[in-house]
Specification:
Elements: E1 9-11, E2 18-20, H1 40-43, H2 52-70, H3 79-82, H4 88-94, H5 99-104, H6 110-113, H7 121-142, H8 144-166, H9 184-201, H10 204-223, H11 229-246, H12 254-282
Antiparallel strand pairs: 1-2
Helix pairs in contact: 2-4, 2-7, 4-12, 7-8, 7-9, 8-9, 8-11, 8-12, 9-10, 9-11
Length: 283
């Protein structure tokens, strides 16, 4: 069951087509290292992208339901942007970030946990729709190990940026957030990774399309006060710089997968620590 395959063909984890186990790239979809060093038959049981897309989508959905059930009396229902919004107490308990949690309560680890929480039904629906489209694309260009690393660093960079800017006496739209959640920080990190790839590989059409998306979101963020612009920009910078450092034109290695597992472990730990640290504070 756990035997490594060294010869023959395997199913590409990205497109599902057969490809040689030793091939460096899938001829059908361009997925890097489709054989996964011979472990593709085992790892493909977790799904395409080794299940990371599903982990994010279902993980965020589960956390959203948990925060709703954590304080049913505080669920908001006013207007499109506030429809089915969880209360601040369960969001704080599960790891919301921003200047207040990070600097007011010393909950610095929330820069990882906050990306798994959302403030309303529209908020989570929009983020999950974009992540479902972008994560497979970034995985195809960088490999799933580097996708996890980019996603995690972008989350930390985005929420760190908005937390720092949130303690400065700046007017809107320059001010950071005192209390913030959402997967849009790592989402912007994926935008940054795609732009980094377009620059490195010379594929300008990818960069042009992504820049249009980024500019669109920046304009929307300048028009709607509740949007966390610093989390977006910090996430974008974190994803772009990490992607440049990882270099998409180099082959992915087993070390990237080990670092990715570490990133997932740290993220899970941040949620667990948030709960146990926050429980006495919200009583």
């Amino acid at each position: 069951m756990f035997k490594r395959q060294t010869t023959g063909a395997v199913v590409c984890p990205s497109c599902g087509r057969l490809v040689g186990v030793q091939e460096g790239e899938c001829y059908n979809c361009g997925q890097r290292n489709p054989g996964l060093w011979g472990f593709a038959p085992l790892l493909n049981q977790f799904g395409r992208n080794l299940g990371f897309t599903e982990i994010v989508l279902f993980g965020c959905a589960a956390m959203y339901v948990i925060t709703l059930l954590g304080e049913p009396s505080a669920i908001g229902g006013g207007g499109l942007f506030g429809l089915l919004s969880p209360g601040q107490r369960p969001l704080f308990l599960m790891g919301a970030s921003g200047a207040l949690p990070v600097f007011g309560y010393g909950r610095w680890w929330t820069v990882l946990s906050a990306a798994w929480l959302h403030g309303s039904l529209l908020h989570i629906a929009m983020n999950m729709m974009w992540l479902r489209q972008l994560m497979p694309a970034v995985s195809q260009l960088y490999g799933v190990g580097r996708l996890v690393i980019i996603y995690t660093v972008a989350s930390a960079a985005g929420f760190a940026a908005t937390s720092v800017m949130g303690i400065l006496p700046l007017p809107w739209p320059l001010q950071g957030a005192g209390f913030t959640v959402g997967a849009s920080a790592p989402l912007f990190g994926l935008f940054g990774a795609l732009i980094a790839y377009s620059q490195r590989a010379g594929t300008s059409h990818i960069g042009q399309q992504v820049w249009r998306w980024v500019i669109m979101f920046v304009v929307i963020g300048l028009l709607i006060p509740m949007i966390d612009n610093w989390a977006h920009m910090g996430g974008f910078a974190g994803g772009y710089l990490t992607a440049r450092w990882l270099d998409p034109l180099r082959d992915e290695s087993s070390k990237h997968y080990l670092v990715a597992l570490g990133c997932l472990a740290l993220t899970l730990a941040s949620i667990v620590v948030s709960f146990f640290h926050g429980a006495p504070l919200v009583q």
